[in-house]
Amino acid sequence: xxxxxxxxxxxxxxxxxxxxxxxxxxxxxxxxxxxxxxxxxxxxxxxxxxxxxxxxxxxxxxxxxxxxxxxxxxxxxxxxxxxxxxxxxxxxxxxxxxxxxxxxxxxxxxxxxxxxxxxxxxxxxxxxxxxxxxxxxxxxxxxxxxxxxxxxxxxxxxxxxxxxxxxxxxxxxxxxxxxxxxxxxxxxxxxxxxxxxxxxxxxxxxxxxxxxxxxxxxxxxxxxxxxxxxxxxxxxxxxxxxxxxxxxxxxxxxxxxxxxxxxxxxxxxxxxxxxxxxxxxxxxxxxxxxxxxxxxxxxxxxxxxxxxxxxxxxxxxxxxxxxxxxxxxxxxxxxxxxxxxxxxxxxxxxxxxxxxxxxxxxxxxxxxxxxxxxxxxxxxxxxxxxxxxxxxxxxxxxxxxxxxxxxxxxxxxxxxxxxxxxxxxxxxxxxxxxxxxxxxxxxxxxxxxxxxxxxxxxxxxxxxxxxxxxxxxxxxxxxxxxxxxxxxxxxxxxxxxxxxxxxxxxxxxxxxxxxxxxxxxxxxxxxxxxxxxxxxxxxxxxxxxxxxxxxxxxxxxxxxxxxxxxxxxxxxxxxxxxxxxxxxxxxxxxxxxxxxxxxxxxxxxxxxxxxxxxxxxxxxxxxxxxxxxxxxxxxxxxxxxxxxxxxxxxxxxxxxxxxxxxxxxxxxxxxxxxxxxxxxxxxxxxxxxxxxxxxxxxxxxxxxxxxxxxxxxxxxxxxxxxxxxxxxxxxxxxxxxxxxxxxxxxxxxxxxxxxxxxxxxxxxxxxxxxxxxxxxxxxxxxxxxxxxxxxxxxxxxxxxxxxxxxxxxxxxxxxxxxxxxxxxxxxxxxxxxxxxxxxxxxxxxxxxxxxxxxxxxxxxxx
Length: 862
Prior knowledge:
Elements: H1 3-19, E1 22-25, E2 29-32, E3 37-47, H2 54-61, E4 68-71, H3 74-85, E5 89-100, E6 104-113, E7 116-123, H4 127-137, H5 147-162, E8 170-177, E9 184-192, E10 198-208, E11 211-213, H6 234-240, H7 260-276, E12 283-292, E13 297-305, E14 311-318, H8 325-332, H9 342-351, H10 358-363, E15 371-380, E16 383-391, E17 397-404, H11 411-415, H12 428-441, E18 450-456, E19 461-467, E20 475-483, E21 486-498, E22 518-526, E23 531-540, E24 549-561, E25 567-569, E26 575-577, E27 583-596, E28 604-618, E29 629-643, E30 654-663, H13 680-683, E31 690-701, E32 706-718, E33 732-734, E34 748-750, E35 768-781, E36 787-800, E37 812-823, E38 827-836, E39 849-855
Parallel strand pairs: 3-6, 7-9, 10-13, 14-16, 17-19, 33-34
Antiparallel strand pairs: 1-2, 3-4, 5-6, 8-9, 10-11, 12-13, 15-16, 18-19, 20-21, 21-22, 22-23, 23-24, 24-27, 25-26, 27-28, 28-29, 29-30, 30-31, 31-32, 32-35, 35-36, 36-37, 37-38, 38-39
């Protein structure tokens, strides 16, 4: 029998049973499925569902009591479809429970519930990755595991690793019945990451003027030699690709990994590079990415059509009334014949980081809705004419200024740093300056500072909202240092956002009163019986609350001995002074007042300080030129600083200049004593000197997270009277890490990595110093809870005791690598390895290279 005849026989045999199928209800009433009939729903019940409300289930079906339905008909089928759409059930049946009076039916919805999630776990991932994945997939216990939930979880996990460069990641989800919790399953997310897909090579072919530039032998290889037929070398194109890099053993900060998104962005960067050189029509004609499963790498080949180079010709301004066309052209700074670059044009119009663009001229004068639209009006041969259409709009004034996100710092502390005031004309530069000032406070995460402007066109006002994110600013200093041949321990507490006015309010202690921007520092140092030092300081940055006038008060006391007790007892138990005890006691107090200046600009500040130190020596000859007696150091200090760096921990732009003058009264000039005949103790009862210091630091961004920091410093300690001589205090000690524990006499301990501590100064200290530093810094982590950056440095410096010997180029040099980590509770911690280039006289056994550990922001800097 043929196949066709067999199928026909089977259909004929089954058809009669299908046509006469019936549903029997209660053994008495029959519903003939062959004859559709209309019924009224008398009731609906739900069974098999303990976790869902019956009314909600009935609502999903679209059926309700009193509805007219036809059996057989579409309404029952549609009800079942509606329930399946919810993806909540594993089985769905709607059955006839009862038929009354011939036309009233009672329905029962029988459900099988889906499994719920009791717990889930990861296999094949690290603990840190598992924590990150839990935040992303956001699976909750009790979640119904629908197909959509399972597939979505799989996609999220896979995407997580693909974005990290693991393009061959495999994710397998395994469901296991939970024997403890009914109707629940345990989900195992098994991940096989494979290896990161790296880039083995990137090759380019160029089309220039319609002619393809052939690659030698049609091989994929990298050429770094300039080709006269190419505007950019292969090396320049590879450097334009910031994220997609060929794997090389020397790559430390930009590892090779292939990510589709980054690759797409890098192709756009190549075109942007060509555009910046005048090739406005440059395009990537084709690109090929070939995956090699053996080496788990990809090879990339691109064909670039460079097109022709274009130049700016005529630029005309339209719609400008506030500023003349000549003035705007001078700000734009583009002349006829300049190489065409859309990036340069946009930067000069609207996005210059130094606010020297055309847009800034308007936005700093209230024109919030200003627009400048460049339009190409003519392209002839290689020249382009532009018409810049200006829409000035109207001037806006600031209406409301608000701050959000500060749950610790009081509003008035933030508001006094804000340059935009209600009633003033809108000024973008003042917003940028405010952002910088808030960052410099150190209370907020600089990466999360936000600004939201809400214009009100009806009344010509704008609301400005600053958003901040608090970060810990208090610090605990618990450290050890080595100085004077002994180990010194330090315990310090710095409360950088203190509130003195809330000191007596019990409810303000959490754990200390805070929020008013004051600084309180308490510090103690000791190495047992040999040395103890205590320091207390308090700073109010806004004395009076209306102006940036900073008041600082500090008190200190230190005791250094040879470890002998002060008193001994004789045979009769009577106390007497210990004749072999050596001691040096130093007590000091200082009061300072700082003020922000408005001239030459408001980045300048001036600081005045009056300080007094009292030195009491008892048989102590380790530091000064006399062993017994006392000395008084009364001095005045003036400091003028210009600071425009944009952040306290990792500045990217700006500079810091500082000039410091410190002096005592010139006692010897008003005395008839012959100081050449006096002993040092007699001369230095009232010490005299004048001291000058100049430092500078520049920050130059290379990329967002790569910054070059250049520093230079000069210091000089002078005397009023040649017979009096140079003071034994306040001298410069150069070399090492500057983590030496303590300073006894106002000395400045300046670090120079790669050399031993103090090795580049005389034992009594230097009177003149010069130091130069070049650092290249790269930010690894901007996290405010652990800001980390690495650096490479070149450093040089030296000290002298006479100006006739001074040579700023005769210095000791070093180079090396280092890392810095800022922890809010401990401050800035540093580790450097320095390699010295020069030998030091009198130190033949000094190591050529050595590690240095530092604690503090500017410790050891000149």
